[in-house]
Fold this protein.
Amino acid sequence: MRGLMPGIVIRQVEPIDLETCVKVEAKCFPPEEAASSQNIKKRITLYPEGFWVAQKQGKVVGFVNSGATNQDDISDEAFKALSGHNPLGKNIVIFSLAVAPEAQKQGIAHLLMHRFIDESKALRKKNILLLCKEHMISFYQKFGFSDAGESASNHGGAKWHEMLLKL
């Protein structure tokens, strides 16, 4: 069965996970790109059904989080703080997929993405949208995402590509 890995559990986020998720985010993204503690807390509080964590031997080592919207343009920075978030929106937008460096290259990101896709389907979303850097395009294409080209977003001063997965 897909997703079974000894010692790895993928589960919905809980408020107690905040501090660990903030630390993982800070390890995985440059400061100008990492979500603030306040934004991660909002995501946990307002949309836990779109926030999944990976535990390895009882410790959170990664996560994927999101918001939902009826908008197709995901370049709005305010949305990352869940401004305009609509839990019933047709699109679910991944904000970050992060696995602590010491837990990378073990398939954890793949497990998180498969669970996220399955849960997005269960939520009856039409599309999963995300922004990624060019070197990550092929990673997301493995899950069926298509590259919709460069985004208008300049989050953190970087160039981003818009990715789309029709569910």
Observations:
- Residues 7 and 113 are 18 Å apart (CA to CA).
- The mean pLDDT is 90.
- DSSP finds four helices and seven strands in the chain.
